[in-house]
Amino acid sequence: MSVIYLLISISILVAIGFFIAFIRAVKTGQYDDDYTPSVRMLFDDELKITSNKSVQTTEEKQI
Predict the structure, then answer these.
(1) Of the candidates 61, 58, 10, which has an alpha carbon nearest to the alpha carbon of residue 2?
(2) Secondary structure of 23-44 in the HEC alphabet?
(3) What secondary structure letter does DSSP report for 4?
(4) Could you tell me if residue 29 is left (phi over 0), alpha (psi between -120 and 50 degrees) or otherwise beta?
(5) Do residues 25 and 31 touch, judged by C-beta distance below 8 A?
(6) What is the mean pLDDT of residues 33-59?
(7) What backbone torsions phi and psi does residue 33 show, to the nearest 5 degrees?
(8) Contacts of 31 (CB under 8 A, 6+ apart)
(9) CB 16 within 8 A of CB 22
(10) Tens-place pLDDT, residues 27-40
(11) Terminal C-alpha separation, the chain
């Protein structure tokens, strides 16, 4: 029975360690997306053409 208590306490310590590592990675910007904003401007025209609402607005602007 003492082995179960030992394993539970070790697993809780490991989980806390991973949680602290995750919080630290988020705060330091590890998961920030630096690539998408620079490429988003290249695909703006394609997004406007595919949606029906924006196609109507672009046609109205041309007329």
Answers:
(1) 10
(2) HHHHHCCCCCCCCHHHHHCCCH
(3) H
(4) left
(5) yes
(6) 64
(7) -100, 105
(8) 25
(9) no
(10) 998 888 888 877 87
(11) 81
Q: Which pTM value belongs to this model?
A: 0.53
User: CA 13: distance to chain centroid?
Assistant: 27
CA distance 9 to 6: 5
Task: State which amino acid sits at residue 1.
Answer: M
Q: What pLDDT score does 4 carry?
A: 96
- Give me the mean pLDDT over the 9-24 stretch: 98
- Burial code (b: 16+ CB inside 10 Å, e: under 16) for 11-22 equals eeeeeeeeeeee
